[in-house]
Design a protein that fits this description.
Number of helices: 22
Strand content: 25-35%
Radius of gyration: 52 Å
Largest sheet: 5 strands, antiparallel
Oligomer: single chain
Number of strands: 30
């Protein structure tokens, strides 16, 4: 196909005898007539010999003009003419006249004629040769089978650093400048094409040229075999094009793409800054470092607008090639004092918002007066190019990035400056996003933790420790929570729960539920009653949301346990939450078996049920959120494994228990947040509790005062005798007067002195403001004045009114 196209464009190569030529003597008579001329015009040699040449012109008057032009020219020139065919046809040709000197000294002319088609093909052929060997941007070489030059275009070769002009008969190894190419590899490619007869197209070849010896140049080399008419490879032609700028542009684009793919893989400011310097070294610079404004480094909001020249910058990251500076003037995290020096390049870059490029002697001239130590390092490593690019995002300056070259000998150029600005801008957006994420995450965690207990209470009944782990996902806010609530009678409530979903709404809902549980706990409700009231509260919260498609409180889970140190009984109820784990003092682990499954809050279904268990002295009760359990699909297996063994006996600190549980978290960690509460229970010693059964008779009030006073003397609490007599007197009087038998008086010595009076009536007394003329109604008012806390709790057979007084 290609051979046909070539033939159509240029025809066959002329064969000997094909040329149309004739010879004229000095008088213009035809003396010789070639066979090609006979084919062209149809005349035989005998018919034209002796005739004047003008007889063959269609317009004989043109003969004088042609002769004049030929005589004036020193070299053959082409003249267009119209010849007459033997049959009278017009034949348009191009004529070339060559002067010939005969032996007798007379001038003769050799006239060559080319038809219009021949002339057209000839012009194209000459144009092709000029294009390839004179005007082409390609470097064209022709070699024989011995790898010797046959032809070359000298203009491009001179640009490549060749000195010699005539390479004919010599090899590339003999004429190429030193270091231009790997000659062994070059000749191997030539021999491969000669041996296989297959072209080698667009091979990327690296080398150096004398005019730019410090930088790699890249050429695209194509080697094509030359074949004879028989198909034998008789030579090679090379077409070589300098693609250095294109390769450099490709490398710059690759660097930008690499920066886009690499920088910003995490939402961490320092890690993002390190990714920037790692991308730049060694492909772009020999050494690079990032300095951030101090507020940005700390994660605070940057100041919009221009930055003062004395603003403090802190080193965030640095990278260097092997053999680079072993020591740095500024360590990561330290303030770079050079940046705030008056007139420093940093000050100029930050105030103007434009890059600063220093080359050659400018580097030392700028650094020596401001920072002699840094200047000494620059001199020692031979730093010759220093580029500083300010870093900005959302109209605020974040810091600056410095790029340094000392190993490679060529300096930063204008294209390098644009490239640096490109990936510094990319890094600036990522660093600003990371800073904002860090700030928002810190705010979110502060909110989350503010909704959880800030400090767990110190109680005799339980020792407690806790852990809270934020979610690993995009939202750090979640709904997992726990609480420890002191109750009357030295009892304590242990609570854990989890709100469905993530985000701010879940955290706020969690806070509302925790507040609701504390409010209900103050009423001294039983666990199942408390969950029933909490379920109603969740339904009301859901009603407040209307038809909004955001996850509400419905579906939240909760477990509520009340431990009584006097009886060591623990009452537990749950709403869709995993049951607490019980760890005995010998390391045995069991999960409490509770009646019913308990539907999640707001889902309705069967009523909540309560289960009771007696806990031994020093046993552990472990409550955890759903995030630690259900997403893994492994049930309680991992938690049982974490809590099992002799390591978790009474001797271990509860913080150690929490750490052990956290270390056993399944991998990968659940995306939900997690709350963990561990409590070690302690019973109250029998000598710290005394109970009396009282008859429902008025005279028993005085006896109750005597009994209480005697016990306080035994406990060494004589300073509380007066107030305790008053409290006992008022509570027993109310029980006898308004309550129902049986009546019971109990004193508990815990961290406070607790006085309790129980009767069978469910009627609750109320404080009222008595008038001056009233004879009664002041009892509970007086109790509220002398007691630190007081209240009423109800049970199946009546009520208990209690009052607490601080000890000491």
């Amino acid at each position: 196909m290609h051979d046909v196209m070539f033939h159509e464009a240029f025809g066959d190569h002329p064969q000997p005898g094909d040329e149309a030529y004739a010879v004229l003597d000095a008088q213009g008579a035809l003396t010789n007539w070639g066979t090609g001329a006979q084919r062209l015009l149809g005349y035989t040699p005998d018919e034209v010999r002796g005739r004047h040449g003008s007889d063959l012109l269609y317009t004989p008057a043109d003969a004088a003009r042609l002769v004049e032009r030929w005589q004036q020219a020193d070299a053959p020139i082409l003249q267009r003419a119209v010849l007459r065919h033997r049959d009278g046809r017009r034949i348009e040709v191009g004529l070339r006249a060559h002067r010939l000197a005969s032996t007798d000294g007379r001038m003769h002319w050799l006239i060559r004629a080319e038809t219009a088609d021949d002339l057209h093909r000839s012009n194209f052929g000459r144009a092709l040769l000029r294009g390839l060997f004179t005007e082409s941007p390609f470097l064209i070489d022709v070699f024989d089978t011995q790898l010797r030059f046959v032809a070359q275009n000298d203009v491009q070769r001179q640009a490549a650093g060749f000195v010699d002009k005539d390479f004919s008969g010599r090899t590339m190894r003999e004429v190429a400048p030193a270091g231009l190419l790997d000659m062994t590899a070059f000749e191997d490619r030539q021999r491969q094409v000669l041996a296989t007869g297959e072209a080698m197209v667009a091979t990327e070849v690296h080398g150096r040229v004398p005019d730019d010896p410090d930088r790699d140049h890249v050429w695209s080399e194509t080697i094509v075999p030359l074949r004879s008419d028989s198909g034998e490879v008789i030579g090679l032609t090379h077409a070589v094009f300098d693609v250095t700028e294109g390769v450099r542009a490709r490398e710059r684009l690759a660097l930008v793409n690499d920066a886009s793919a690499t920088i910003g893989s995490t939402l961490d400011v320092l890690h993002t800054a390190q990714e920037l310097t790692d991308v730049a070294v060694p492909l772009f610079a020999d050494h690079a470092y990032v300095d951030l404004l101090d507020p940005v480094y700390r994660g605070d909001e940057p100041v919009a607008g221009p930055v003062a020249g004395d603003a403090a910058l802190r080193r965030a990251a640095s990278s260097s090639i092997p053999g680079g500076p072993a020591e740095t003037v500024v360590a990561t995290g330290d303030i770079d004092s050079f940046t705030s020096a008056p007139g420093s390049p940093f000050a100029r870059a930050l105030t103007s918002g434009k890059p600063v490029l220093l080359t050659g002697e400018e580097v030392l001239a700028e650094l020596t007066p401001l920072d002699p130590r840094r200047a000494a390092l620059v001199r020692g490593y031979g730093v010759h190019s220093w580029l500083l690019v300010p870093m900005s995002a959302r109209g605020a300056v974040l810091g600056a990035v410095a790029f340094v070259r000392f190993k490679r000998s060529y300096s930063f150029e204008a294209d390098d400056l644009l490239l640096a600005e490109e990936f510094v801008a990319r890094a600036a957006v990522c660093i600003d996003n990371a800073r904002r994420y860090t700030q928002e995450r810190s705010t979110a965690l502060a909110l989350q933790r503010s909704l959880l207990p800030q400090r767990l209470p110190v109680l005799n009944a339980v020792e407690v420790a806790s852990r809270y782990l934020p979610a690993d996902g995009h939202s750090v806010l979640g709904g997992a929570w726990f609480d420890v609530i002191p109750l009357s009678g030295a009892r304590v409530a242990l609570v854990a729960g989890d709100v469905v979903g993530h985000g701010l709404h879940s955290a706020v809902t969690m806070g509302r539920l925790r507040t609701a549980v504390r409010t209900l706990a103050d009423l001294d409700l039983s666990p199942e009653e408390l969950l029933t009231h909490l379920d109603g509260q969740v339904n009301r919260l859901s009603d407040e949301r209307g038809d909004k498609p955001v996850i509400g409180a419905a579906g939240s889970t909760c477990v509520y346990a009340v431990f009584d140190p006097v009886t060591r009984r623990c009452a537990v109820a749950r709403a869709g939450h995993p049951p607490p784990a019980r760890v005995s003092t010998d390391g045995k682990v069991e999960f409490l078996e509770l009646p019913g499954s308990g539907s999640p809050l707001g889902h309705g279904g069967a009523p909540f049920e309560c289960g009771e268990v007696t806990l031994g002295e020093g046993e552990l009760l472990v409550l955890c959120s759903d995030g630690l359990e259900q997403p893994t699909g492994t049930g309680h297996a991992w938690l049982r494994e974490a809590l099992s063994g002799s390591r978790l006996t009474t001797s271990i600190w509860l913080d150690g228990v929490c750490d052990t549980v956290i270390r056993h978290l399944p991998s990968p960690r659940p995306q939900d947040d997690m709350a963990l509460l561990v409590a070690r229970v302690h019973g109250l010693a029998p000598d710290r509790v005394i109970t009396w059964e009282l008859a429902a008779e008025p005279e028993m009030v005085g006896e109750a005062r005597v009994l209480a006073t005697q016990k306080l003397s035994e406990w060494g609490l004589q300073e509380l005798e007066f107030t305790t007599e008053l409290i006992v007197s008022e509570l027993v009087t109310n029980a006898i007067r308004y309550g129902s038998p049986p009546i019971q008086l109990r004193l508990i010595r815990d961290r406070s002195l607790i006085c309790e009076v129980t009767d069978a009536s469910s009627t609750s007394p109320h404080i009222r403001r008595a008038l001056e003329t009233d004879e009664g109604g002041r009892g509970l008012f007086m109790v509220s004045q002398f007691a630190q806390l007081w209240g009423t709790r109800y049970h199946a057979r009546g009520k208990t009114i209690w009052a607490e007084q601080p000890l000491g």
